Amino acid sequence: MTTKQESELLTRVGPGTPMGNLMRHYWLPALKSSELKPDGDPVRLKLLGEELIAFRDSSGRVGIMDHRCPHRCASLFYGRNEEDGIRCIYHGWKYDVEGNCLDQPNLPPHQQFRDKVRAKAYKAAERNGVVYAYMGAADKAPPLPDIAATHIPESEANIAFAFRECNWLQGLEGDIDTSHLNFLHYGAAGAADFAPTDAARFGQIRRDPEYQADEHELGTIYGAYRPAENGSTYWRIAHFLFPCWTLAPFIAFEHYRIARAWVPVDDTHMMFVMIAPKAGPGSVPVTERVLPNTTDFLGRYRLAQNAGNDYQIDRAAQRTRSYTGIEGIHQQDQAVTESMGPITDYSFEHLAASDRMVMITRRRLLAAAKALAETGAMPPGSGVAGAETYGRMRGGYFLAPETRQWGDVYRLQLASVQTQGAAEAAE
Ligand code: FES
Ligand SMILES: [Fe+2]
To answer: Whose CA is closest to atom 1 on ligand 1?
Structure first.
């Protein structure tokens, strides 16, 4: 049971909150690189409850900063993005991407104090089409997390952003809740709807998996398992990785190169970010339709199917051929997680054995946030040493001999794909 106090701690991400402080130890995916053009329009965005702008300067560098000008707080969103900086339209003060004040043209030279003024800028970094923000103490920014999918070249990647109107953890928990798959998404499907060689068909035969779940150095892992054929077991393995990543198992393990982030925008909104291959056996299509972005702080990547139109639920289809009547896997997830309210009332829940991963993930997050608040302990995967450990994690589904112990299943499967990968690299 998650108490009201624990719920507050898990879901509040603003400045000074324990979870907000934890989040500020990591790089967070913030925008698509393509949203920012050199000397182009600044973009409003919100992250961890802070209203920000992002812009790309004349040299191509990205700036992410508090939208308020440090002079008299006019919004830099209206600023002139010109000659390697953003110039406030109120009195003309100008800042570079690091927040340095470059110009105070409304003051005579002897009254200027450029070296004493800084815009509240955060570190920004780009990798393969995604802009990341680091909102912690600037001198401590670690390397970007070494998640396999983030190394897919932009031209070969599907990069999807989707805004969701609920707390970040609520969204994330939907991705580590494996037993919903064969109801919400495939409730009307049978094993015959899957290729005879696709192990995922066993999820349609047994819709009541058992779970193993454990904590690990970067977060948590679950293995959901059920009997398959010839004495083998059908495993689905997934991770939660600090602070808000998941590796969900909807692709075969050997092809897995997907990263999914559930980025806290503020306490009651989040941005889903997925990076996956565009083509090949591990590819993931992007099916959600998004509305045109607006310039609002909460105006990017809103779905066309949303609460305002009941996700365009088709009740006739629900009665005859679709479990939900809602088109699209992501939209189905969005509908149920938003339907819980902006922040789930955890005291109303009745968690079951199928929610073990949800339970241990909350526990892991609570412990890390409390340890940071009470002793200053660096949260898992943060800091310079943490970044590279992300590359060792993989999710996905596969068949394994039934005799294997849970602890060995993941290690052996990982070793086998690594051996295969090394052999392919050597060819
Ligand atoms: S408020 Fe921005 S220059 Fe004065
Ligand atoms: Fe789902």
So the answer is: 72
pLDDT at 154: 97
β-partners of residue 397 are 236, 252
Cα distances (Å, whole numbers) of residue 20 to 92, 241, 341:
33, 16, 21
List the domain boundaries for the chain.
27-140, 148-306+334-426
Q: Is the CB of 72 under 6 A from ligand 1?
A: yes
CATH code of domain 148-306+334-426: 3.90.380
Atom 3 of ligand 1 has which residue's CA nearest to it? 91
Q: How many helices (H) and strands (E) does the chain have?
A: 9, 18
C-alpha distances out from residue 189 to 193, 200, 203, 333, 354, Å: 6, 12, 10, 17, 21
- Whole-model pTM: value is 0.96
Regarding the beta carbon of 74 and ligand 1, being less than 6 Å apart is answered yes
- What's the pLDDT tens digit per position in 65-124? 999 999 999 999 999 999 999 999 999 999 999 999 999 999 999 999 999 999 999 999
Q: Which one of 65, 68, 93 would you pick to mutate in the ligand 1 pocket, going by the greatest count of ligand atoms within 8 A of its CB?
A: 93
Give, to the nearest 10 degrees, the angle between helix 356-375 and helix 4-11. Answer: 80
CA geometry: angle at 107 spanning 102 and 109, to 5°? 75
Atom of ligand 1 nearest to the CA of 69: 2
Q: Please give the CATH superfamily to which domain 27-140 belongs.
A: Rieske [2Fe-2S] iron-sulphur domain (2.102.10.10)
**What is the position in ligand 1's atom list of the atom closest to the CA of 76?**
2
Using pLDDT thresholds of 50, 70 and 90, give the confidence band for residue 196. Answer: confident
Evaluated on CA atoms 250, 148, 166, 62, the torsion sign reads: negative
